[in-house]
Write a structure and sequence with these properties.
alpha/beta, 7-stranded mixed β-sheet, 18 strands, globular, Gfo/Idh/MocA_Oxidoreductases, GFO_IDH_MocA-like_dom, nucleotide binding
């Protein structure tokens, strides 16, 4: 087994604590330090994990507190979004690989500077879009090819700790990233709106995104809901996937030609199988599953109808293996770091740092890709932020129209 990579965690709040505990448990990592301006919080976590604590990252790099312990080669940055650029640039300029929590930065120009610094330093810059490692998403990933319609609902109770960003950067950006990861087309138009509920900014937002190839994505996010919901649905030609990212399960429906290849013009759809309209005034929870609208007998009749048309319908559950998404994300980041270091060492004397991140999220040395990340690269994080800013513009305009006197 390759040597463990020395890592540090900057920011020991809610997310940073998870990072630190998982690094301490991962055989691929050696947790060598924690950094936080809150000395008490950092001390508690440091005592729990048995690692030194520092009030600044510069102090960690120059400390002589322990003899023989390695300095970090990689870091997780889990500080408030407004500080991401300063902290990440500091680390990259000192030759460290960086995983920064989402969103990558508080502005697109800041994200661009971070990516440029990573390229210049030849270091890995990854972004913590952890939903890419959701067990349900990973299980269905290979089947989610070029969806034509995406629908997502991400709802959460109000949490005061996330108020440094609005609901788009806090929640919706997860689904923006997943959509961009799957749709092989550029964004053509964005229509978005939002409303304030408990804060002055948007606490609920909805966005309709149209891509140049005709794909549509309808995304809704709320941070003032009673219950947590993280559901996303993908519709493609002859296929449908519904994933519950919170529960970690999903279902698929596949429609295909029968093996004979024969096609018989189908009769009209039986009237009994046609969907009944909802009575006027019916309340509908768009995020909740609807009860089956067909009886067993009607379901059999529908299958016969499809078979007559030379089509077959396959329904089944997505085979999901229970995993820790953040653990997988950190392990993937460490694999990229190890590959980058190996590539730099193999390049020969005087060429340290030539290994860099490819735009596709791979670590490359010359023409040879060593590791293609499943997670989000710095470039991926910036794409998600660019789209999020378009959504936020629409949300801002809708908020302005809601203000008295507008």
């Amino acid at each position: 087994m390759a040597r463990p990579i020395p890592v540090a965690v900057i920011g020991c709040g809610h997310l940073g604590t998870y990072h630190a505990r998982l690094y301490a448990d991962l055989p691929e990592a050696e947790l060598v330090g924690l950094v936080d301006v809150d000395a008490a919080a950092a001390a508690r976590l440091g005592s729990e994990l048995g690692v030194p604590v520092f009030s600044s990252f510069g102090e960690l790099l120059t400390s002589r507190e322990w003899a023989g312990a390695p300095l970090p080669e990689a870091v997780s940055v889990a500080t408030p979004t407004v500080t991401h650029e300063e902290v990440v640039l500091f680390c990259l300029e000192r030759g460290l690989h960086v995983l920064v929590e989402k969103p990558i930065a508080d502005s697109v120009p800041a994200a661009a500077r971070m990516n440029a610094a990573a390229k210049e330093a030849g270091r890995v810059l990854a972004v913590g879009h952890v939903e890419r490692f959701s067990p349900a998403f990973q299980a269905a990933r290979d089947e989610l090819i070029a969806p034509r319609y995406v629908e997502a609902h991400r709802l959460a109770p109000f949490v005061p700790r996330s108020l440094d960003v609005d609901v788009v950067l806090d929640l919706m950006i997860h689904d923006l990233d997943l959509t961009l990861a799957l749709v092989p087309s550029e964004v053509e138009a964005v229509d978005a709106a939002g409303v304030p509920v408990l804060t002055d900014g948007a606490d609920i937002a909805t966005a309709r995104i149209r891509f140049q190839d005709g794909t549509i994505a309808n995304l809704t996010a709320s941070r003032v809901s009673r219950d947590k919901v993280r559901k996303i649905r993908f519709f493609g030609r002859g296929r449908y996937h519904s994933l519950d990212l919170l529960r970690g399960d999903g279902e698929r429906v596949l429609l295909s030609r029968s093996s004979s290849g024969a096609f018989t013009p189908p009769p009209d759809l039986p009237a009994a199988l046609a969907p009944a309209p909802l009575p006027p005034g019916t309340d509908v929870d768009a995020a909740a599953a609807l009860p089956p609208s067909l009886s067993e007998a009607q379901g059999i009749e529908l299958l016969a109808y499809l078979q007559h048309a030379g089509l077959s319908l396959q329904y089944g559950k997505v085979d999901v293996t229970s995993r820790n998404a953040l653990r997988d994300e950190l392990a993937d980041f460490l694999a990229a770091v190890a590959a980058s270091e190996s590539a730099a060492e193999g390049a020969g004397p005087g060429t340290a740092g030539v290994a860099s991140r490819g735009g596709d999220g791979s670590t490359v040395d010359g023409d040879h890709a060593r590791h293609r990340l499943r997670g989000a690269s710095g470039e991926d994080g910036m794409r998600a932020l660019v789209l999020a800013e378009e959504v936020r513009k629409g949300v801002h305009d809708s908020l302005e129209r809601l203000r008295p006197g507008s």
